[in-house]
Specification:
single chain, alpha/beta, 6-stranded mixed sheet, two-stranded antiparallel ribbon, about 15% strand, disordered N terminus
């Protein structure tokens, strides 16, 4: 009976994952149609030139550097952020996440790839590289039609000619409040025990260096909790990367 229950749990988790992927694909298709129909207008400055004008694109150029979260915890994996979560880069990320502007995925993938290369600098050729995305909170996933990070990771992986593997090892365990406006202590309480290892997760090959991936790092609470969950299950976490860090 225990084996049957475990098998049913695995099937249910896989079914939910398949449904999430389908919703994400449908949302992306709808967004592409909308982008084709609507007049081209820069998502960052509003110029009637392109979905992202040349000037704003230049300001999205990645400058990877080690992030300094406001209240890092002992479990915090050192994080390389591609850019600062302010100004034009912030508007571009929000346009992709909250407005469904899928054309911004290419810009964000370039940022992510720059951060990954900076974080992986110094690894020996014997090491494989694996990226573990932070899963989107359930409410946000429903609102956006899917997980927003995985498509960026896959685009970056194709561009890099398979420099890294994508390992979605984590799942969320419960609903959580939007972290915007929460202080460091509230963020820690909000994310506490918020992740678990997926029932069907395959263990990466030996000598795989795992990097956690988040979109924005602020207090470091989310990355710390994710790293704690992975390490407790025997997955070695090297460091982490983020698209942007709160200044």
């Amino acid at each position: 009976m225990k084996c049957t229950a475990t098998a049913l749990n695995v099937i249910c988790h896989r079914h939910r994952e398949d449904m999430s992927i389908r919703r994400s694909s449908l949302a992306a298709s709808v967004s592409h149609v909308i982008e084709l129909v609507l007049p081209a207008q820069c998502v960052a400055c509003g110029a009637d030139e392109a979905q992202l004008c040349d000037g704003c694109l230049a300001l999205c150029r990645p400058f990877p550097q080690w992030a300094r979260p406001t209240h890092p915890q002992l479990d915090f994996p050192a994080c390389v952020a591609a850019t600062s979560y302010a100004g034009i880069p912030r508007r571009v990320l929000l346009a992709y996440k909250e407005q469904g502007r899928c054309a911004m995925r290419s810009v964000l993938a370039a940022q992510l790839l720059a951060a990954v290369r900076a974080a992986a600098d110094g690894l020996t050729p014997a090491h494989a590289l694996g990226l573990v995305p932070i899963p989107t909170a359930p409410a946000a996933r429903r609102r956006r039609g899917g997980d927003h990070l995985i498509p960026i990771l896959r685009t970056a992986r194709r561009r890099s000619r398979n420099l890294f593997g994508v390992w979605p090892l984590l799942r969320t365990t419960h609903e959580r409040a939007d972290s915007v406006g929460l202080d460091a202590a509230a963020r820690r309480r909000n994310i506490a025990d918020g992740f678990a290892i997926r029932a069907w997760a395959r263990r990466p090959p030996e000598l795989t260096a795992l990097l956690l991936v988040d979109d924005v790092v602020t207090s470091g609470a989310t990355l710390s909790e994710a790293a704690r969950t992975l390490r407790a299950a025997g997955f070695p976490v090297l460091d982490s990367v983020a698209l942007a860090a709160t200044p």
